[in-house]
Amino acid sequence: MNDEDLYQQLATRVLMPQSKLIPELFRMIADQEEARILLATPGTIPELAEKTGLPEEGLEEQLRTLFRKGLIFKSEKPGGTVYRMCRDLVQFHDASILWPEAPPEYHRLWKRFMAEEWPEFAGMVSRMLPKPFSRVVTVQQPVEARSRILAFDDVERIIRDSGRVAVTKCTCRLIEGNCDKPLEVCLQVGKAADYTIERGSGREVSVEEALDIIRECEEAGLVHVTMNRTTDSHFICNCCDDCCMSFTLISKGINLCDPSRFQARVDQEKCSGCGNCLERCFFGALSLSGGEGSEVSTVDPEKCMGCGLCMVTCPEEAISMELVREEDFIPR
To answer: Are strands 186-189 and 319-323 parallel, antiparallel or unpaired?
Structure first.
């Protein structure tokens, strides 16, 4: 098998057979022997040694290197540790960008991919999936409201219930660099935290430090996003509208992220019409209406994603988050 075929096969493995840039990204991060190991997965070390003809001792070291690069994942099975390569494009993106030794040219090639090939692929995925793979989680609610909020809707409880938390840099802002929002704010929880810490692509944080990061993100105008299911959240991303691989596509009509179960509600008797909430909203869901001198904010329910950023900085405390979607809106 020639060099070109190896990297084309790797691109096909992550569902990108027509891509011109994904084979080049694999070529930049894996040599030919590493590429052959990736194509031989899944398997245990003895199984992969048999498939590749490589000695087990040397193979184990190469697998550690590929694990650090974000190309190999492992799981414990009754028959031993099973190694597999990244399963799809998003996992390849998220893991390999955080490769601690990634050279600048590797990140630059990812940025080129996101501009040239990602929108078309994302559009195809959005049409195929029954539900988006991620969803917005609303900001931390006032104490009196939290007792009525289910665990998977509550960013604080997701963190407290996770067992372990780590923080990494935001892969989207690391690549795009289109804003000055906080960078080291992507929280990995549970098993994802274990993976991050073992791999060395992030650092462990306490629950209180994680909650401080959440508060920092809310003040900075970042939206909390997690997995679109009721159990086993693996991450809490804190997303901007300048760099995010999902939010930057909304204007193109491509939906990769569901709203939360909440929606902003404005108490128009309290609203002063200052317009702070308009500046905070990524989604164009807020506008001012009424006569000159008596304008107040109004919410477009079709556009509101229920993130709650508008509520955080409302000087009149005129905005609250209202539950508008049933529990089964989020897949189990």
So the answer is: unpaired
Secondary structure E strands in the chain: 72-77, 80-85, 134-137, 165-168, 186-189, 203-205, 223-227, 235-239, 257-258, 262-266, 286-289, 296-299, 319-323
C-alpha 280/C-alpha 304 separation (Å) is: 12
> In angstroms, rounded to a whole number, what is the distance separating the alpha carbons of residues 124 and 252?
13
d(CA 155, CA 174): 23
Q: What are 299's strand-pairing partners?
A: 286
Q: What is the per-residue pLDDT for 329? A: 84
Tell me the residue length of the chain: 332
Rounded Cα–Cα distance for residues 20 and 194 (Å):
34
Which structural domains are found in the chain, ordered by start? 3-116 (1.10.10.10), 130-258 (no CATH), 262-329 (3.30.70.20)
Question: What is the model's pLDDT at position 61?
Answer: 95
Sequence-ordered list of residues with C-beta below 8 angstroms from that of 7, at least 6 positions apart, any chain: 23, 24, 26, 27, 35
3-state helix, strand, coil in the chain (%, to 5): 45, 15, 40
| φ, ψ (nearest 5 deg) of residue 207 | -60, -45
Confidence of residue 141 (pLDDT cuts 50, 70, 90): low
